[in-house]
Amino acid sequence: MEDSARRRLGVQPIALNDTDLERVEELASLSPELQALLEGLPREQREALVRRVVLDRSYEEIATELKCSASVARQRVSRGLKNLKSQLEEQ
C-alpha cells in the first residue's frame, strides 16, 4: 500500500521479523484440507485462531490487533478450535 494511502486510511506499516516470516511460511505450507477447514470458520474465529496457533500471539496481543478484549480473544480461539474439531469429526 502506498504511503499516502496508508496515511489516509490510518493504516500502520506492517513490520515482520524472521519469526513472523517463518510462521507465514508454515501457514502457507498447510495442507489444502486444513486451509479449507480454516476458511470455513467465521472470520473472527479464524483471525483469532491463526494469530494464537500459527503466529503464537498472546491473548493480549490478539485483543489489541483485533480491537477486542482479551476475554473475547480467548472465546474466539476456543470457539474456533471447537468448530475445527467438529469439522474434523464429520470427515
Give an overview of the whole structure:
- The protein has 91 residues and is mainly alpha-helical.
- It has a single domain, classed as Winged helix-like DNA-binding domain superfamily/Winged helix DNA-binding domain (Arc Repressor Mutant, subunit A, Orthogonal Bundle), CATH 1.10.10.
- It has six helices and no strands.
- It has helices at 3-9, 18-28, 32-39, 43-54, 59-66, 70-90.
- Helix 4 packs across helix 6 and helix 5 (59-66) crosses helix 6 (70-90).
- The chain starts with a helix and ends with a helix.
- 15% of the residues are buried.
- The model has no long low-confidence stretch (mean pLDDT 81).
Q: What are its keywords?
A:
Arc Repressor Mutant, subunit A, 91 residues, 6 helices
* Total domain modules: 1
Going by CATH, the homologous superfamily would be: Winged helix-like DNA-binding domain superfamily/Winged helix DNA-binding domain
CATH class assignment: Mainly Alpha
| Morphology call | globular
Number of strands: 0
What count of helical segments does DSSP give?
6
CATH architecture: Orthogonal Bundle
The CATH topology is given as Arc Repressor Mutant, subunit A
Strand content range: under 5%
Structural class: mainly alpha
> Largest sheet, described in full?
none
| N-to-C series of helices and strands | HHHHHH
Uncertain regions spanning at least 5 consecutive residues:
none
Distance between the termini: 40 Å
Proportion of residues in helical segments: over 70%
The value of Rg in angstroms is 15 Å
User: How would you state the average pLDDT, rounded?
Assistant: 81
